[in-house]
Amino acid sequence: MHIAKNLRYLRRRARLSQAALAQHVGLSANGLSRYEQGHATPGAEMLERLAYALGATPDELRHVDLPHVSRYRKARAAASGPRVPAAAVAPGQPRPTGA
């Protein structure tokens, strides 16, 4: 389970303090801190509130290593080269591959 790491990662990415996120979901800052440190696990309802407040799903918080996925996507995007907007390609012409 990745709940603790994901909560902290998503909260920081959203530039929210523990107090702000905790207040938004109806939790104490100390309670959120315990979740982020892995000392406690939120129940199903609280997990859902936290997930949706942070733009994720409860399953993503539980099962996906979001910081790792984010680093992987950034590295892959950087390796693939610059993106060419669809409007920059003449109709009927193939899109460049970025190689």
TrEMBL record:
It comes from the Bacteria. The keyword Transmembrane does not apply. InterPro entries: Cro/C1-type_HTH, Lambda_DNA-bd_dom_sf, TransReg_Diox_bact_type. Keywords: DNA-binding. GO terms for molecular function: DNA binding; DNA-binding transcription factor activity. SUPFAM superfamilies: lambda repressor-like DNA-binding domains (SSF47413). Residues 7-61 form the HTH cro/C1-type domain. Pfam families: HTH_31 (PF13560). Gene3D superfamilies: lambda repressor-like DNA-binding domains (1.10.260.40). Residues 77-99 are annotated as: Disordered. GO terms for cellular component: cytosol. This is HTH cro/C1-type domain-containing protein.
